[in-house]
Records
---
Amino acid sequence: MIAPPRIGVAAVHSKASESMPRPDRHKLTVSCLLGLFAFLCLAPFSAMAQAVDPLPSWNDGKAKQSIIKFVEDVTREGSPDFVPKEQRIATFDNDGTLWIEQPMYVQMVFAIDRLRELLPMHPEWRDQQPFKAALDGDFKTLLKDGQGSRNLQTIVGVTHAGMTPEEFEQIVKNWLATAKHPRFHRPYTELVYQPMLEVLAYFRANGFKTFIVSGGGIEFVRAFADQTYGVPTDQVIGSSIVTKFERRDGLPRLFRFPDVNFVDDGPGKPVGIEQHVGRRPIAAFGNSDGDLQMLQWTTESGGRRLGVIVHHTDAVREYAYDKDSLVGHLDLALEAAKLDSWTVVDMKTDWKVIFPFEMKGEASPKP
Amino acid sequence: MIAPPRIGVAAVHSKASESMPRPDRHKLTVSCLLGLFAFLCLAPFSAMAQAVDPLPSWNDGKAKQSIIKFVEDVTREGSPDFVPKEQRIATFDNDGTLWIEQPMYVQMVFAIDRLRELLPMHPEWRDQQPFKAALDGDFKTLLKDGQGSRNLQTIVGVTHAGMTPEEFEQIVKNWLATAKHPRFHRPYTELVYQPMLEVLAYFRANGFKTFIVSGGGIEFVRAFADQTYGVPTDQVIGSSIVTKFERRDGLPRLFRFPDVNFVDDGPGKPVGIEQHVGRRPIAAFGNSDGDLQMLQWTTESGGRRLGVIVHHTDAVREYAYDKDSLVGHLDLALEAAKLDSWTVVDMKTDWKVIFPFEMKGEASPKP
């Protein structure tokens, strides 16, 4: 087992780890002997590095131990639990697992801001559901039992379609550059969980490919995943709307249509992983009932597996919620965690810091 | 520009290049100074390596030059055509571009063998189309204008569904281990194009991510892509049938259903690439009209781009076919190649060898 680099405030290190420049690697291939020499020289440094804590923002406890023990077991050559590199697939939910999702899913806030922007062309939305509820910030009506999913799809349809994927990416990037969280007054990309950035980097340093598996829109998440998490666009899996190829003004392009193509949530997550990765993960991280089937499919497959539920228990530094919350609803998956021996992370006690800015000594605003 | 490793008979080297063990990389990160030292030591070797021909199985000529010039232009720092690593995406069709597709698509041969295996349970297939045509090897009827696609889908439906993805992968692997090409009497995985294996390795050595974008079934291609091409399962894009999550006998699993989910051919190829990669490629390789839109979308986007059509012109060492062939039909894309300045590879004159076995001095059987 090799210890990962120490993690700074942002995920810059983890990005470098994912996509180390290939020419540099190649220079080593050119001269095997020198490479072997370098390896032998560096081995003692590597042994030293193991003493560095791979998860410095985690308090010692069952959760931290279970993650480290898992990585050590599947990467130690000769271990009965050893897993070859090409099978080291780890999947991570995004909303509530890697970044904040309260008081409302970030993509929904984006969609509502887009609704407001487009409102002059659609004044009828003021009196028409689900647009009215969205514009009024009436999340209870918006996410009402059994209608939340359809309402969100309707709003995504009118705000996320009608452009090329490149244009949509730019719209998201522009929004992320200016929008701020109502309580933390910071860009959403700063409201990612420092302990989880460390997990991402730790897994990658140990030969894992890390995939984001989001119920959110695949192209929304791709707009920031590389810079924020060190996860390249092709390792992001998510929900999508219909995209078609066409020629317009003599040029080929893709165009986004307001119909659902794929819902990457609940039982859709294992299907999305199969479509994109073609392998069953050996580790999966989630925080809500939307992650239930992903964790079941990952862990109930024989062999050494890791399932992790991030439980939001810290109302002071972040939010405390589970089975009574419409956003990030966690009920069945918490029951399943007992049955399947998943690791349940108690954010309040397991995490020394929640957000990267706390490492600079900046405090969270009071709830 | 860094020269790639020399290519042996199989694609083992390219595989190593794609997935260089991360712990080894990491050891270098641990000690930057030693790394810098090693870099300085190795620089002269790297310069030497540039003299090594990256495409040794290609004859000197326009095609080879255009490929090398493109890679040099987009990887040279400070060049007006420089492309950052994360945008270096290259896509490759499979049938007829990376491996043999005559006298019939390999996956179709597999499907027909499966039909024969399942025939005792479905004796009605003997008199029922398209099964009868498939069982009789009557490819003309099978691929008849306007019906080929539907016929293939029907046959894929009954031969590729009704099991888990893991079970299907094993069925394909077992078949590939025993099936032999009718003319070459070798396993199909030996009938890959040596010059294209070199292109894959050359691109990867220069920081490209290489994706297979096949009209064939995504899980059929994944069963051999890693070992044969050094392309991991998550970098394979292809057509797919519906897969659903379910619990059976108390365990979660995915199950394959006989309905089309996605057709990754023609205008579907750019859509499939967007779904999986989330970026427009800067280089694309194909050989038939099914690759037309992928090459247009790749090259007609401004900036330095590479489009390549592999033209099958060698009836002695392989097959010669284009617009009159039902398999690998090439007509519109050959016209478009002129308009869009794509590189057209003449297999007869541009390739020193076609298959890896020729490098061991073994001759091709006569046509």
---
Amino acid sequence: MTLPLRIGLLGLGPVGSAVARAILDKREVLERRSGAPLELRRVLVQRRGLPRTVDESLLCFDAEEILGDPEIDLVVELLPGEEPAYEYIVRALSAGKHVVTGNKEVMAKHGPDILQLAAEKGVDISFEASVGGGIPVIGPFKLDLLANRIHRVRAIINGTTNYILTQMATHGSAFSDALAEAQALGYAEADPSKDVDGIDAMYKLTILGSLAFHLRVRPEDIYTEGITGLAPADFRYARELGYAIKLLAIGEEEDGAVALRVHPALLPESHMLAKVDGVFNAVAVEGDLVGPILFHGRGAGGGPTSSAVVADIIDLAQRSAAGPTRVHPPLFEDTYAIRRMDDVRTGYYLRMLVQDRPGVFAQITRALGDAEISLASVIQKENVLLGEPAAEYAEVVLMTHRTREATMQSALRIIAALPVVYRIGSLIRVESE
Amino acid sequence: MTLPLRIGLLGLGPVGSAVARAILDKREVLERRSGAPLELRRVLVQRRGLPRTVDESLLCFDAEEILGDPEIDLVVELLPGEEPAYEYIVRALSAGKHVVTGNKEVMAKHGPDILQLAAEKGVDISFEASVGGGIPVIGPFKLDLLANRIHRVRAIINGTTNYILTQMATHGSAFSDALAEAQALGYAEADPSKDVDGIDAMYKLTILGSLAFHLRVRPEDIYTEGITGLAPADFRYARELGYAIKLLAIGEEEDGAVALRVHPALLPESHMLAKVDGVFNAVAVEGDLVGPILFHGRGAGGGPTSSAVVADIIDLAQRSAAGPTRVHPPLFEDTYAIRRMDDVRTGYYLRMLVQDRPGVFAQITRALGDAEISLASVIQKENVLLGEPAAEYAEVVLMTHRTREATMQSALRIIAALPVVYRIGSLIRVESE
């Protein structure tokens, strides 16, 4: 008879509740698939007296009742934010317990240390739920794609912002209106900054980039820009040019260096990522053998995320039951350097309001030409709006070929300072197929 | 020092060559990720004197030199068709060797027996490459999605037919022209019947269905219909109605029974599967926890398929190096019955040529009404073509709501026998979101 896997659960929010419900309601089938009995021993909650999905007798209010219980084999950590989650994970691993976590912030900030601690203690830490909800993305990088040299990862990994961008593209909504709608539907939090400023996507890219490139990626290695500066006009022009606008998390290897960045980007409409709408997530990967592949699904919510958490539990149960586990090759190969954002080469979309008189366009293109930036396309619109000085302005939209970020930024400063340029509307990077 | 994994390779076609090249060219990184040295010991080929990707000294021409060599731990089987591949796999497993195969026909026809033999012998058989090339699909079903009850799998798993259908949809080509083009490009074989008749997709659905529903699926359990009957007109009408036409492999659970079928289907243009074009494959899965997810990528070719084969090799190396392997829970739970095609309920698209005179339409709708089949939409076109008897004909296209297959087929026989109906053009099933 196989020994049961005794589980302590930290947190009973939407994901924790869905995990507890799955373990309790699907016990028979999950145990058959695990090859071992699964026993939910104790659940840490913050407050007494709330209606709960698990029996009152399982609840505890002090983490020590789980972390200090020698009979608990596995700690499932599903708390929000960095602390006390990080502390609890370290204590659990130090006590020789396996850990399953869905905590992207902890894994992004402390992943390498946590993995090393787990290795030293001979226990496992799994974190499939930390990126992409129930979409298998960590698993594929840890095994299925291991034969590949990964060239590029591009992902839509924040459902809140993808919902907002879809509303702006479909209905021409302003950012603030689309955000308010997302908040009303429960897709965005009251303080939406972690989502709309790209922080959530940046944490997830830290994890994805580490796995894809076998590299120690830290949050500060990632250039991060949110979606608050996008205007309805950008979506109209993008469509005219055959592009969608998405908040992308991008990791890209070239000449031995990896660039990692989160920012809004124009993406050709024919690309599968451009077709990912609403709260859906998708991760597109390009490998030397496999070519381009894409994973698509719901990236958040109790159900989808619990699917990943319970899969990690089953995986652990299967391996614990068999005795010694598999060989874990070193996760980090440290083959690559990190490329700074200044040195990234990409195309640019530039929208600005300029004085509507002869010679203006020549001044702008000269500034670009001087920096050796070549134009891919130009849209010029008569503009009915009058600026603050009583004059007529025209909206000009340019798309450039690939150039260095630093080169583009310095050309932009020169253009912005031209007396004929009234205002820079937006600068958005352009991704190719 | 870990013992090397000694590999015998059966077959050096496009996939076998790509696998051999990966093992030889990427040795250092693959060994680091495997946790064990990988040694390509011997390669079975059919003929002498051809230019090869591996050193002449590795080649052999008699399978016994691999299957009978006690020093070979792992046999990688990449031969075309059922025999002698099946025989070799059985001999390898019986001799206590692990097997990695990409052979969908063998796995579809003999999967349960092979899995049982491997279990009896205490060795592993892996077959990620048998479906979807390098797209991880077997792995997700064997682990990542294991917490779910799977409701439905719908897949585009034959690149040849998806290329042909994309050409027909995009350029209005006739089937024969699109097929000839696919053949010229190397996407279709000289004898294309296994692809265009749906046989290849059916083998793959046998494997996917077994994994998704934990059920012993046999090829004869699957209703199979190819794409040879589709006409350019069907693609025009489908688009008018907001649908794409795809060859789908579908497995669907309802009320404790699973229906499995391969046939062309109308699919709403908004569905992610409708956006899968050219030789690409995609597998869409719906689970009770994870909701809808989709995997997309190249489903064939040496590179992508070798990505899956080498991942299976790394997996095996990691586990062999650790000693005892994980617990393999029983693959088959046999919870479900198989639902016969007659009892499947779906929508239908029906195109026919009828006499262009009053009362004709009433006769057709009466036949449908008598069978309690309700109409979802109707298109009627004046037709310039004259039939063989000198008369004017009109093309009528109907879409029905969901009804039983047997009911629809018997109504169709009644309609086809009506004197006013000149010819049934096509009957295509309709999938919902």
